[in-house]
Design brief:
Elements lengths: L4 H14 L14 E3 L16 E3 L4 E3 L3 E3 L7 H17 L2 E3 L4 H5 L18 E6 L9 H11 L3 E5 L2 H6 L10 H11 L4 E4 L7 H9 L4 E3 L8 H6 L5 H7 L9 H11 L4 E4 L6 H10 L3 E4 L1 H9 L2 H22 L4 H5 L4 E3 H4 L6
Parallel strand pairs: 4-5, 4-11, 5-6, 6-7, 7-8, 8-9, 9-10, 10-11
Antiparallel strand pairs: 1-12, 2-3
């Protein structure tokens, strides 16, 4: 039996902010990497710049960061999205919206997604579940979603295991690659694919790119586990108990970034999943990502405060990233991405890697 979409979205926000939703036996993998400090950087800290671009559209960004898709479609979601959009516009970050399925099915929920008036110039990503293409959604629905929110791109999310544990979830993922290819051919905006916290591997990334996908967000393991989120909502005692067996499931964010970059080298790559600091972001960029995405760390300020509270957190992330760049002696995001000063401490052993 399907649960009420709007109530589900409100439940998700409350659970993510108040319950223990981080996977217990998996990490992002970023803790295994360290920057090799440069004691004489030969640059001025004032010259360190985060200026970047959203590759699929070429739009400029003030920082190589994305507010990852989170919510919309409920009363609480409207406030969250407004605060996030205003902050993203001010700080020059890209922004993803929560799944627009509810907006397509229930017109009364659409206003919570219409944030373009608050964020007129930043890259804005519309979002739908890829599995919905097996539930009657087609190209026209995708176009409507993009037009409804005046988005610059469309991203499909993959959430197969979440759907298994979600009450009334959609679990028929057959034939979706061909349907994705058809949508990519028909859309006039770039189309991307993201996970929701379990990661994407390089082999799948190659298939997605061959299908016409313009960008990939790995959304790796090590942050919010949507299996744990749905466990708190699950009334089926058998499924609820089974969720514990998957506390360590997923591809760590760091390994997912490396795998995708290796097998889909020219694809615009977003790293999200458990990122909490600007140093985390800098590590993902040095590993091969083009953009770093943040979600839960911004949700609290957006829910309980206003755009200023969100911006304060964003400013801290930006500062941490700039300090990390200064600490290894690079002035630009391009130089950070091409740096050889990120080392795997598990592999380097006792000998310094220089």
């Amino acid at each position: 039996m399907k649960d009420d979409i709007r109530k589900r979205k409100e439940d998700h926000i409350k659970i993510v902010l108040t319950r223990d939703v981080v996977g217990k036996h998996v990490t992002t993998g970023l803790e295994r990497y360290r920057f090799l400090h440069n004691a004489l950087p030969e640059i001025s800290f004032d010259d360190v710049s985060l200026a970047w671009r959203f590759g699929p559209t070429g739009q400029p960004l003030k920082a190589p960061f994305l507010i990852s898709s989170m919510t919309g479609g409920s009363t609480g979601g409207e406030r969250v999205n407004r605060n996030l959009a205003m902050a993203a516009q001010e700080r020059g970050w890209a922004m993803g919206l929560g799944s627009l399925r509810v907006a397509l099915e229930r017109p009364e929920s659409r206003e919570s997604f219409r944030v373009r008036k608050w964020a007129p110039k930043i890259p804005l990503l519309a979002n739908l579940g890829l599995v919905q293409l097996n539930s009657g959604f087609g190209v026209e629905d995708c176009r409507r979603a993009v037009e409804m929110v005046e988005a610059d791109a469309l991203v499909f999310h993959l959430n197969s295991l979440q759907e298994v544990f979600q009450p009334g979830g959609d679990t028929d993922f057959r034939g979706l690659l061909k349907k994705l290819e058809a949508v990519c051919r028909a859309m006039t905006v770039p189309v991307g694919v993201k996970e929701v916290g379990m990661g994407i591997d390089g082999r799948l990334a190659r298939k997605l790119v061959d299908a016409g996908v313009s960008f990939i967000d790995v959304a790796g393991a090590g942050g919010t586990s949507w299996i744990r989120v749905e466990k708190y909502r699950q009334g089926d005692s058998l499924l609820s108990a089974a969720a514990d067996a998957f506390d360590g499931w997923g591809i760590p964010t760091a390994e997912s970034v490396k795998s995708v970059r290796r097998q889909a080298p020219g694809t615009f790559l977003i790293a999200s999943g458990g990122l909490g600091t600007g140093v985390d972001a800098a590590k993902t960029l040095a590993l091969g990502a083009d953009l770093a995405g943040f979600a839960r760390t911004l949700l609290g300020p957006a829910r309980s405060g206003g755009p200023e509270a969100v911006m304060n957190r964003m400013k801290q992330i930006e500062l941490e990233c700039r300090i990390a760049m200064f600490g290894i002696g690079v002035k630009t995001v391009e130089q950070l991405k091409n740096s050889d000063r990120l080392v795997n401490v598990d592999e380097s052993g006792s000998q310094p890697p220089f």
